[in-house]
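Figure 2 data, in text form.
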Amino acid sequence: MKIQKIERQKKDKNRYSIFSEDGFVAGVSEDTLARFGLRAGDDVELERLREIEVYEDFSTAKKDAYAYIAYKPRTISEVIRKLKAKKHSAGAIEGAVKLLTEQKYLDDKLYALSYVAEKLRSKPIGKELLRRKLLQKGVTKETIDCALRDILPEEGEVELAMNALRKYSPKLRDEDDSKRKAKCYRHLMARGFSNETAYEVTRMYLEEIK
């Protein structure tokens, strides 16, 4: 195939359209154009064209990944899901994720640590809820457990649960002991504390307010 002409696209100034004698061949990024040194008049074999297409997919996947993480930090799994939704090939996705990981833009361990710390700054919630949220984002159980151990030791979770009940206390003012106990327990479970923590901290709190 012989390249007849290369034109900058009107809607995206960073992309170019390649034409042969038979018409439009492909759209490529400026990155791909420069990497392969494509110029009008070049003869491009089918094998070389395939290399260009593969690299173009990677280049576009990389661009989409950078755009996706620009708004806020993302997990590796979230980026993969996004790139799959954009219809990139498995190879392009793998290459883009590998590059962003090497550049430290993707780091699930750091993400988990930041996520836990941020959530705990906003309101007292338990490990179980934090674990569920991070699992939904594709972070591995091992990475989550490490982050929780670093940020929230067992005694820290007990204190968080106590703070949650102290903030909740105005809603318990007119309740009898039985209803107060049930509401405290349910409140802590809803906040993502384990059954054991909810039970024990409810007992400690009720002793505290006697």
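Caption note: The CA atoms of residues 17 and 27 lie 4 Å apart.
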